[in-house]
TrEMBL record:
Belongs to the EPSP synthase family. MurA subfamily. The active site is at residue 116. The gene is murA. It comes from Sporosarcina quadrami. This is UDP-N-acetylglucosamine 1-carboxyvinyltransferase. PANTHER family: UDP-N-ACETYLGLUCOSAMINE 1-CARBOXYVINYLTRANSFERASE, UDP-N-ACETYLGLUCOSAMINE 1-CARBOXYVINYLTRANSFERASE 2. It comes from the Bacteria. The modification 2-(S-cysteinyl)pyruvic acid O-phosphothioketal is found at residue 116. Phosphoenolpyruvate binds at residues 22-23. It catalyses: phosphoenolpyruvate + UDP-N-acetyl-alpha-D-glucosamine = UDP-N-acetyl-3-O-(1-carboxyvinyl)-alpha-D-glucosamine + phosphate. HAMAP family: MurA. Its EC number is 2.5.1.7. The lineage of its organism: Bacteria, Bacillati, Bacillota, Bacilli, Bacillales. It is found in: Cytoplasm. Keywords: Cell cycle, Cell division, Cell shape, Cell wall biogenesis/degradation, Cytoplasm, Peptidoglycan synthesis, Pyruvate, Transferase.
């Protein structure tokens, strides 16, 4: 079992570079299925979700080359191979194989997706969209069967604002006949990134980034070259880290506009945030004041930063309430932070945190990706050596984290330890 070991309390200083966005990458890669010639994506993060998607494309006959963040996918010989199990369970975004394969082959068999356990994560809105386009969708023994004689554009109103459903319906609709309108669409920057790739492949999409997206179906899509946007959640994680443990940190390769909700919260707490063109500088913070946080759909405060942000609140003066309106039970980090001396309590869909509390090292478990990121930040602050187990979740989403953190002075290493030392349930 691999673990991270972190000796906390080191002064962190210098420049840390953000990689390409995980939540774009995991949609851009499946989008290539819709082309009739090679698609090249540059700036991809080196994370296990990307490698798993590469394997899934290879499973269906794609020829994929991936090195130095550049992936070239030749989709010309892909076939509609069923993917009921195996790799699809390893990540959430395998659901994009549904929209992309349905769009190209008019049928697909895909196992139910995996991903972080954040409470219930239904895909009813994805299915509602596929059905509106004319697909018959059934769930048989844990796999979703999708089949359509023809996909025809339709109006789809999303009952909940969903990133995954918005992108998946776009993927299924770009090669359908006629016009599809997605109403109450999600507006995340990753949706614009995917729409940009599809447009450069020859698709006709208007309104991505607003809550109404119009797609006029085209007959075919061709290969292209695309550079991914920076990961705003990784950037936000580094901003929180800089506020909690930094001695002057520059976060490089960030679009400041994409992290505005976090910037505003940090400023409210007393953190100085200097925005530059593609960088953010955070000097050493002296006094942190507690602030309440409520997660919302974009451009609101992202649920994916709520868990890392909770660590910062343990260092702030006063009491604060965090409410997660997207995933009401996304608080598994709190039990682990309590092992490290944090004063936090989960109450329904909120957490009450009081501080400042000096964190102490402990052996803790990364129950999910952002809980893991939270524990890394906690480990960087804590007195002594913290061991983080189940880092497999962290490596789904953070590219070269150890090297990046060492580069700003952190004492962190990856070690393999005996399974017997696991603290998992
Ligand atoms: C791979 C990826 O991009 N993952 C992100 C994506 O996940 P994901 O696409 O799974 O999240 P959604 O935006 O779909 O979910 C938002 C909310 O809608 C609900 N819902 C969603 C779909 C559906 O069919 N029915 C339904 O009820 C969910 O339970 C959740 O409460 O957006 C989340 C919310 O910003 C982020 O935390 C994830 O990092
Ligand atoms: C929840 C997340 O990822 P996924 O949707 O891939 O599980 C995340 O990136 O924080």
């Amino acid at each position: 079992m691999d673990v991270y070991k972190i000796k906390g309390g080191k002064p962190l200083q210098g420049t840390i570079k953000v990689s390409g966005a995980k939540n774009s990458a995991v949609a851009l890669i499946p989008a290539s299925i819709l082309a009739d010639s090679p698609v090249t994506i540059e700036g991809l993060p080196e994370i296990s979700d990307v490698l798993t998607l590469q394997a899934l494309l290879e499973d269906i006959g794609g020829k994929v080359e991936f090195s130095d963040g550049k992936m070239t996918i030749d989709p010309s010989e892909m076939i509609a191979m069923p993917l009921p199990n195996g790799n699809v369970k390893k990540l959430r975004a395998s659901y994009y194989m549904m929209g992309a394969m349905l769009g190209r082959f008019k049928h697909a068999v895909i196992g139910l997706p995996g991903g972080c356990h954040l409470g219930p994560r239904p895909i009813d809105q994805h299915i509602k969209g596929f059905e509106a386009l004319g697909a018959k969708v059934t769930n048989e023994h844990g796999a979703i069967y999708l089949r359509a004689d023809e996909l025809k554009g339709a109006k789809v109103y999303l009952d909940v604002v969903s990133v995954g459903a918005t992108i998946n319906i776009m993927l299924a609709a770009v090669l359908a006949t006629g016009q599809t309108i997605i109403e109450n669409a999600a507006k995340e920057p990753e949706i614009i990134d995917v729409a940009t790739l599809l447009t450069n492949m020859g698709a006709n999409i208007k309104g991505a980034g607003t809550n109404v997206i119009r797609i006029d179906g085209v007959k075919k899509l061709h290969g292209t070259k695309h550079t991914i946007i920076p990961d705003r959640i990784e950037a936000g994680t580094f901003m929180i880290m800089a506020a909690a443990a930094g001695n002057g940190i520059t976060i490089d390769n960030v679009i400041p506009f994409h992290v505005e909700a976090l910037t505003a919260k940090l400023r409210e707490m007393g953190v100085e945030v200097e925005e530059r063109e593609e960088q953010i500088f955070i000097p050493k913070t002296k006094n942190l004041m507690a602030v309440d946080v409520k997660t919302l759909v974009y451009p609101g405060f992202p649920t994916d930063l709520q868990q890392p942000f909770s660590v910062l609140l343990t260092q702030a003066t006063g009491s604060a309430v965090i409410s997660d309106t997207i995933y009401s039970a996304r608080f598994k980090q709190i039990d682990e932070l309590r092992r490290m001396n944090a004063d936090g309590k989960v109450e329904g869909s909120s957490v009450l945190l009081s501080g400042p509390t000096p964190l102490e090292s402990a052996t803790v478990r990364a129950s999910d990706l952002r809980a893991g990121a939270a524990l890394v930040i906690a480990g960087l602050i804590a007195e002594g050596e913290t061991e983080i187990q189940e880092i497999i979740h962290i490596e789904r989403g953070y590219s070269n984290l150890i090297e990046k953190l060492k580069g700003i002075g952190a004492d962190i290493r990856k070690e393999t330890i005996s399974e017997k030392a696991s603290i998992s349930e």
